[in-house]
Amino acid sequence: MKFCKKCLLPETYPGIEFDDDGVCSVCRAYEKKWKNFNFELAEIECERKIKNAESQYGTVVVTCSGGLDSSYAILLMRKKFDSNVVGANFDHGFVSDTAKKNLNKISKILNVPIITIKPDFDVMYRLYRDFLIKTGDFCTPCCQGCSRSGFLVARQNNTKTIVHGGVSGSRVEFNVLGMLKHHYERFMRYTDNNYTPDELYNIVTPTDEIKKFELISLPQCFEWNENKIIDTLRRELDWEFLPDGRTRHIDCLIADVSDFLLQKKFGFSKKWMTISANIRAGIIDIEQGRESIKQTEEKLLDEPKDAMDLFLSKIEYTRKELYNLPFYIAEPAVKYL
Ligand SMILES: [Zn+2]
Predict the structure, then answer these.
(1) CA 81 to ligand 1 centroid distance, Å
(2) Mind listing the pLDDT tens digit for each residue in 168-219?
């Protein structure tokens, strides 16, 4: 199996192409996009937008899960811009205690009110099951919900500006070539009219409603170095990660199940995609990345039993049914790395 000479994405990555030097199309596009990018200017422009929004609406919303990117986004907003912010949080039904603790610390230390949007959990678990059965993974309803909380809290606070730490479109974007499709249209297609508008109200935002708001992604304008971010969060917020040392997706108790199933479906997980993104951005070198991918992907060869038990019990589904789904046919690429 072939891997990109620069970022280690495997040749089985959907839509990827390699040039004669063995470098992938994602790396080539990355070089082009960021070569002449003016970060100073991007920061200034971002600050201008935030200040404008504040003077117009009095406050801006920051979506926050207690995880790494969103905690840093809210910290930047308070410490760098001294902004008047309200946090918008979504309870997806699998929130970890660590995330709850981090949210409490953010709220207290940074003096930020955080509003949690709670969906009807029966609906949420039904959605996870439907997506699992129809697509082989189940993250889309939660992705929709996390973003939905921003719009709902913005409405409650009469503001039209939502700031977030989502890395899409930034130098550390991991979901390259649109591999994981979590957008509204796809969401609606798979819900297949089986849910009432009321049931979905707290979970999903129609595209034409999204257009009425201004979304600002901080990772697109600022340095977004995972290692430095963790240091800063620990120092400033006494921020915690999971007991097993995991620093990404600490807000979700079943993130390992998602990665485990992604590896079975595609041959590699979101963790691999994230590490490749960090290599492209120069945050880690290729050999560090290779070691890191090997470690994390090999762990996923075995089912994360406790997390899987929790997931299956909540969505009322059995292991037998899960493993009989037709999606899990890929060979783990890590065997060849
Ligand atoms: Zn590459």
Answers:
(1) 35
(2) 999 999 999 989 988 888 999 999 889 999 999 999 999 999 999 999 999 9
Under CATH, which architecture does the 39-220 domain have?
3-Layer(aba) Sandwich (3.40)
The pair of structure tokens assigned to 101 is: 């603790």
Query: 62 CA to middle of ligand 1, Å?
Result: 32
User: How far, in Å, is the centroid of ligand 1 from the Cα of 178?
Assistant: 15
Closest of 124, 38, 110, 116 to residue 81, by C-alpha: 110
The residue among 252, 248, 245 whose CA lies nearest residue 224 is: 248
155 Cα: distance to centroid of ligand 1 (angstroms): 41
Sketch the domain layout of the chain as residue ranges: 39-220
Q: How far is the CA of 276 from the centre of ligand 1 (A)?
A: 7
pTM for the whole structure: 0.95
Amino acid letter, 114: I
CA of 7 to the centre of ligand 1 (A): 4
